[in-house]
Amino acid sequence: MSRFITRAWWMAVGAAIAHYFDPINGHGRRARLRDQLVARWNDLLDLAERRTKYELGRAKGAIIETVHTEDPPHDDRALLQKVRSEAVGPTPDLPDHVHVRVDHGVVTLTGRSENPTAERELMRRIGDVVGVKGIRNELTPA
User: Other C-beta atoms within 10 Å of 27: how many?
Assistant: First the structure.
């Protein structure tokens, strides 16, 4: 390091010491510096706590997703209930005379359909139900 840089560095250190240990205003400056350092430290601790909680939540979610994988229903009655509750129930566009049966995991729709758009949406939702092996559409257009 050159002599100029060394001297400039020591002059800056001396100026900082004189600034903070000034007999008239030094006490207030030191108190303000201490308060600022404590505030920065608390901010860092809060940030670390928030990040830790976030990462723990992500890890917990990953564990829950891994452990609680959805098993398909083992019998046709349970699958029929699942299809009715998850797919068929919230379709107000389909008339009441659309009937749903399940045989060995294959869902069969019978009756009349007056709305092709609602029929396609119903088929899509039934296909999304875990355990459905296939769909037979025996709906007749009205």
Answer: 12
Q: What is the pTM of this model?
A: 0.48
User: Which residues 6+ apart lie within 8 Å of 94 measured at CB?
Assistant: 88, 113, 115, 118, 119, 122
Does pLDDT of 123 surpass 70? yes
Token code pair at residue 31: 């108190």
Q: How far apart are CA 126 and CA 129, in angstroms?
A: 5
Phi and psi at 63, nearest 5°, equal -65, -45
State pLDDT tens for residues 88-122.
765 555 556 778 899 988 999 988 887 888 888 88
CB 83 within 8 A of CB 102: yes
Q: Write out the DSSP string of the chain.
A: --HHHHHHHHHHHHHHHHHHT-TTTHHHHHHHHHHHHHHHHHHHHHHHHHHHHHHHHHHHHHHHHHH-PPPPPSSHHHHHHHHIIIIITT-TTS-TT-EEEEETTEEEEEEEES-HHHHHHHHHHHHHSTT--EEEEEEEE-
Residue 67 C-beta-side C-alpha neighbours within 13 Å: 6
